[in-house]
Amino acid sequence: MLSQARDRIQRVTGPIGTALVRTGLTPDAMTLIGTTGVVLSSIFLVVPGHVLAGGLAITFFALTDMLDGAMARARGWSSRWGAFLDSTCDRLADASIFAAAAYWLFREDRDSAGIAALLCLITGVLVSYAKARAEGLGLTANVGIAERTERLVLVGLGGVLEVLGVPGGIEWILWLLTALAAFTVGQRVHAVWTQTKDDRVRPDRRLDTGPVPPPNGYTESPVTE
Q: Which of 57, 125, 210, 217 has the fewest CB atoms within 10 Å of its CB?
């Protein structure tokens, strides 16, 4: 959803990216700086329960996720390695946030919120994997109401409610985020299902007549788990 505002965001991050490139900093370095900052903030601030400090630190370092792309555009070229590194680091950063939140919540005997945090971690991974796997098959699954930016915004909102002392605020936010992420997975599965309708063969013959040959243009491949 927020990805639709990408042009406006790029107008803000573009000049910053240009300035950073002039310092000699690379987009890959910015990716690693941001991810390291998020992971360390999660471990040393969120886990002990310093929600306000942890939230501010994570927000600051998460902004670098936009700056590495702005730097690549300012430089005039990007690489497949950079895209791979950015995506992998995003998963690591997201997992560290929710794992740290779950640890803190369970330690505070807030089991329902802790379970919600773990489910956020799982569904968040599925959201990203569904898109990556679709693209690996030459398809698209760039749909969903809760992409990464939306999920981080909601996590930040949950932290604000916790700091303000709203009873059950962060718990409700985490459960809402779990539901939205699960729905997004469903949207992406449906998108891939729609694009692969022609791949599914429905023979009129009996099932015991042998395997169905692959459609034209396809080759048989072993099934792997």
A: 217
- Give the integer Cα–Cα distance in Å for 104 and 113: 10
User: And the tokens for 127?
Assistant: 């959201």
pLDDT above 80 for 205: no
**Please, what sign has the CA dihedral across residues 102, 108, 109, 110?**
negative
Query: What residues form the annotated binding site for Mg(2+)?
Result: 65, 68, 86, 90
109 is catalytic: no
CATH number of the structural domain spanning residue 10: 1.20.120.1760
Q: Looking at the 3D structure of the chain, how many domains does it have? A: 1
How far apart CA 39 and CA 33 sit, in angstroms, is 10
Residue 202 is assigned to a structural domain of this protein: no
Write the pLDDT tens digit of every residue in 77-129: 888 999 999 999 999 999 999 999 999 999 999 999 999 999 999 999 999 99
In a domain, 109, yes or no: yes
Q: What is the average pLDDT value for the chain, to the nearest integer?
A: 86
Residues making up the binding site: 28-31, 65, 68-69, 73, 79, 86, 90
